[in-house]
């Protein structure tokens, strides 16, 4: 009876956490592959800084680096997004007493979307003025939120949550996801006017949620 | 006597699990490197969406992304395959009391095949209409199945399975591998007619086994 | 109340350590991607070494490899730097009784800078004679030091340090960071004369701190 | 006193094992990046296999894959080498009661050489007929062996080995490294005649040590 097999797999929350950490770590580090070292047409020989023209030669590289700043901002966005969802997933896994195969596959689907993140981030970095790229990025955020929500709901219904988990844990996590997703949707809607506005707003929202300043109402999101 | 060395290595199931998680995580994330952000010939400046031509400019990127869909399907296939074998390996490792050097090398051979998966997946994505690519992918699946089977058999014979492991564990895992491999072989045989059919069938088989719907007889595979 | 969510996330020092190990491991290994196998214009067929011209043919590859030595030195620098900060972070995490969301975000910011290291290292390898590249690398070092300092200060104030941590732990770690950063700043200042001098000095400082020879005053840094 | 800092870092064998597993996992998986999917000049449309010319079209890809076999062999060599040294390092770490900063830096140097392995492996794959490439690979093997030996010796002298470690552990590990390195040196010496011979011999030696057949005298290495 194959159902026996289904009962013996996926029981280890520890290993689910381990592969999650691995995939998040690789995805976070691959984001940076999109930042290419600029290629200058000609390299200059080195002079002491007080020699004439020494500073002029540096200027070329300086300008090339300055042109990378928008990409760096998108990299930062990608890292913040992954960090946020890593924390969200961890908050769930930390409070499970055990896993099962359904829960494991929901989390694997979540990790599959996570591993696509370097692609969406690179797309947004390349096509910052395109609404299509912003839309793809937002669908990404939405999918991550919905899958975390599904994992939470399944864990609740299957009785996988630790008995000593703080009361209201699931409700707080759920509210958190819904509020964040609503704000993202609003930020993306502003992309009808300008995609730069949307990206800036999403970064601000995520920075706010990362820093969680002690100012009302900012600390409620 | 070198055999002393042989006796002191490979005893840690914990570290075997750790390197397995690492290799699976990297292999799963490298799959996405095959999805390249499309290059458009000319970038357009941004206009508010109500400006004339604003939507026309987006269409170009939209079409470029649509052309990536078959590759995305192959990426999904690769991720599902790796997820499935990760679970299968985990089901074994979770129930071992200890390892030894032979078991470790069987699992390292398994991980070696796992680390080749991004290659086979990229090959299939590039040559979707070629039976040779499908054959390589299938040999890959077969090798993974056979190595898991070998690891299981060795663990049984060497008495490495935990005494408190559920009865019938090994038999269930074995049956599972044999059934899955038979179905894969059947799906690949249909590649004589069309490779698309084969790939679609393998994806469906794996999705079925991931979702394990509560419908007979689908939940038996 | 979203603050409930804020209270339930980031409590696991174990998972923070796991994702840190993952990001450091990937960043350390990606450094090597910058070392490209040289491309020779024509490959020679193989002759036994005593055949005429056999050694001449090898010479070409030998010279191509010799030209990689400066890049190898920069790779070594990058690896040493990451190793040093990995140890520094570990020294902190090992002595925490628990984490919280603020601490986790400080460490995620630290890891974000870590994951940018392959970029800065490649930049320095490509533009060894440019002060701008050296400056970027130094800002990197500075950011890593400041973030570790911030994490330490926060952990102290939030009472996250284990009660059984050795007395003077925080003070020693703090002094260590300040001394190292001062020395780095001095080494970089010498870059006004020559960037090679700066890089050589930084490597020596880090080697000294890695080897920690039993010679006064070298073992004090 | 900075020596306080030196005393508080590097104590965690667990985290040293974790970053080792991470670096080995990434290095093992990066080896495969050297296997490029072949590019055919023209793709063919798909016909059922019984249509005329269907098989001819496949032949092209088949030949392109066959040309990858030598690279696959070098990939296998790289994976075997890394697997062997991973096991060797694990055998040491498993029997340590604790670490210290010197031990950690010896292992970090070891990991640094490990992370260079994809480079040496790619070099050997590209320049199979060049003795220089073989020499670089061998220096790599030698460095790994010597660093493991240094780590072992240091652990013994600093009293870091667990009291319950099997007697003769260190002697067996040391003998193992010396025997293996002697055999490698012999195999490489044969490269004076033909590098293919050397590579084949090293693969055979490593396969023998991985499989450890129950045949005298093969099971003594």
UniProtKB/TrEMBL annotation, chains A, B, C, D:
Pfam family, one: TMEM175
Main subcellular location: membrane
UniProt keyword annotation of Mitochondrion present: no
Domain of life: Bacteria
Compartments in which it is found: Membrane
Reaction equation(s) it catalyzes: K(+)(in) = K(+)(out)
Keyword entries, A-Z: Ion channel, Ion transport, Membrane, Potassium, Potassium channel, Potassium transport, Transmembrane, Transmembrane helix, Transport
Membrane topology: Multi-pass membrane protein
Keyword Glycosyltransferase in annotation: no
TM ranges: 12-33, 68-87, 108-127, 133-152, 183-207
Signal peptide boundaries: none
Family: Belongs to the TMEM175 family.
Name under which the protein is recorded: TMEM175 family protein
Protein's organism: Kitasatospora nipponensis
Taxonomic lineage from the root: Bacteria, Bacillati, Actinomycetota, Actinomycetes, Kitasatosporales
């Amino acid at each position: 009876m194959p159902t026996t097999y289904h009962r013996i797999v996926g029981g280890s929350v520890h290993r689910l956490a381990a592969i999650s950490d691995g995939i998040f770590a690789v995805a976070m580090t691959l984001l940076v592959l999109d930042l290419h070292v600029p290629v200058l047409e000609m390299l200059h020989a080195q002079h002491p800084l007080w020699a004439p023209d020494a500073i002029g030669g540096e200027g070329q590289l300086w300008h090339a680096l300055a042109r990378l700043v928008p990409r760096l901002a998108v990299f930062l966005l990608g890292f913040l997004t992954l960090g946020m969802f890593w924390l969200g997933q961890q908050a769930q896994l930390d409070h499970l007493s055990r896993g099962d195969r359904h829960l494991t596959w929901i989390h694997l689907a979540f990790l599959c979307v996570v591993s696509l993140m370097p692609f969406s981030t690179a797309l947004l970095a390349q096509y910052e003025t395109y609404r299509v790229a912003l839309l793809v990025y937002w669908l990404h955020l939405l999918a991550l939120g919905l899958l975390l929500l599904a994992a939470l709901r399944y864990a609740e219904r299957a009785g996988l949550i630790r008995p000593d988990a703080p009361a209201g844990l699931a409700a707080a996590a759920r509210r958190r996801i819904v509020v964040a997703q609503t704000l993202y949707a609003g930020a993306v809607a502003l992309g009808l006017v300008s995609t730069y506005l949307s990206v800036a707003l999403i970064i601000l929202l995520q920075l706010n949620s990362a820093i969680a300043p002690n100012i009302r109402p900012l600390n409620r999101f």
